[in-house]
Amino acid sequence: TRQETRDKTRAMALPFKLMVTVRLLQVIWTSTTFLQMIFVVLKNPIKAFRKKTRSIPPACLIDPSLGAHEYVTANGIKFHYVTAGDKTKPLMLFLHGFPEFWFSCRYQLREFCTDYHVVAVDMRGYGDSDKPSGVNQYSIDILKEDIVQLIKVLGSGKCILVAHDWGGVIAWRVAHRHPELIEKFIVLNCPHPKVYTKSLSTGWSQMRKSWYIFMFQTPWLPECILSLRDFGMFKAMYRGKTSGVRNLNNFSDDVLEAFKYTFSQKGALTPTINYHRNVFNIGERTPGPFKPLEVPTLLLWGEEDVFLDISLVDQHHDVCANITIHRIPQCSHWVQQDCPELTNKHMREFLESQQ
User: Fold this and answer.
1) What is the DSSP letter of 320?
2) In three state form, how does the secondary structure of 262-298 look?
3) Strand bridging mode 297-302 / 323-328
4) Cα–Cα distances in angstroms (integers) from residue 339 to residues 81, 214, 237, 255, 333, in the given order
5) 210 — phi, psi (to 5°)?
6) Which of 123, 127, 150, 148 is nearest to 137 (CA)?
7) b/e map 277-311, b = 16+ CB within 10 Å
8) How many CB atoms lie under 10 A from the CB of residue 47?
9) Within a 10 A sphere around the Cβ of 18, how many other Cβ atoms?
10) Residues 40-73: tens digit of each pLDDT
11) pLDDT for 88-141, tens place per residue?
């Protein structure tokens, strides 16, 4: 019929419009970033390319009070993780964001190890976990399956799933597709995909904050930017005035060095950026009508997040049937590292509630 023809035409047009928009923004932000990089290099070329050799992990990464370092194979990938607590107790699995690794959950490992079998994993492509080559190895469904299999291998039943940033992107997928695996879901500064997608299509505020995602679609440039000035971007992201933590005592120089050590290892950057290079894959949209998530969910949100618009927070009642929301004032995007005491307090109250 004529209506069916129009519907098919619209369906075909949406991927094309998205592709054009993404490529246009990629050109704009790549050009801007490239010019900034040239300025940095010309200003002091020696400092720009000088890098410290880091062959020995900092002491804080091998601190036994955080737990034991172990490995497990799931979904064809050898995963590194740090674990503590009684393995007969319920599994609490932590998923980090970008650019992080297991160590970003250090405050939570110490807090919850007496009550749970806590596990902070280096996700695919991060830290000491396997780093398969190729953008197609980092699709959302492959990443989702990683976590599904990890839950089954590491635990004996439902788990408490705790996820931040990109870990949250994957965890939302797991919660919707496999709710039977999750007792309770805690997500930190990561919006529901439906809320995030809507924000990109209805205004420029979140689009501007997401500029780096479009720049990341370009080969080699993001890796170069992150490694300039001895991985100086990590100091800017985590301790800078704009995007950094507000409580600097919780992110010391030793912690910063731990992050630089991890991401300065050979081949460490590209796999983590490949997560972003797969984000516009049209073929991975969830089929069928949308159903609100029924898993009991806690959303914690640092209010001074420069990467995600604060307006996203209150939209989650439409996508979650059972959600508790706490905003944390004077707290950055790196909420579990910036304000660990308040983060842990809200987590414990939620876990002890009857939801």
Assistant:
1) B
2) HHCCCCCHHHHHHHHHCCCCHHHCCCCCCCCECCCEE
3) parallel
4) 23, 29, 16, 15, 10
5) -95, 20
6) 123
7) bbbbeeeeeeeeeeeebebbbbbbbbebbebbbee
8) 13
9) 14
10) 999 999 999 999 999 999 999 999 999 999 999 9
11) 999 999 999 999 999 999 999 999 999 999 999 999 999 999 999 999 999 999
Neighbours of 163 (CB within 10 A): 27
How far separated are the first and last CA of the chain, in Å rounded?
48
Entry pTM: 0.94
The CA–CA distances, whole Å, from 235 to 8, 140, 178, 330 equal 48, 29, 37, 19
Whether residue 285 is predicted with pLDDT greater than 80 in this model: the reply is no
Q: Quote the mean pLDDT of the chain.
A: 93
Upstream peptide bond of 340 is cis (omega within 30 degrees of 0): no
Asked whether 71 and 81 are in contact (CB, 8 A), the reply is: yes
At 79, phi and psi to the nearest 5?
A: -100, 135
Residue where the block lists tokens 């990443």:
143
Token duo for residue 313: 């927070």
The Cα–Cα gap between 96 and 167 comes to 5
Q: With beta carbons less than 8 A apart as the criterion, state whether 179 and 293 touch.
A: yes
Range list of β-strands (E), 107-173: 117-121, 159-164
Coil, strand or helix at 155:
coil
DSSP state of 241: T
Neighbours of 262 (CB within 10 A): 24
Rounded Cα distance, 333 and 94, in Å? 17
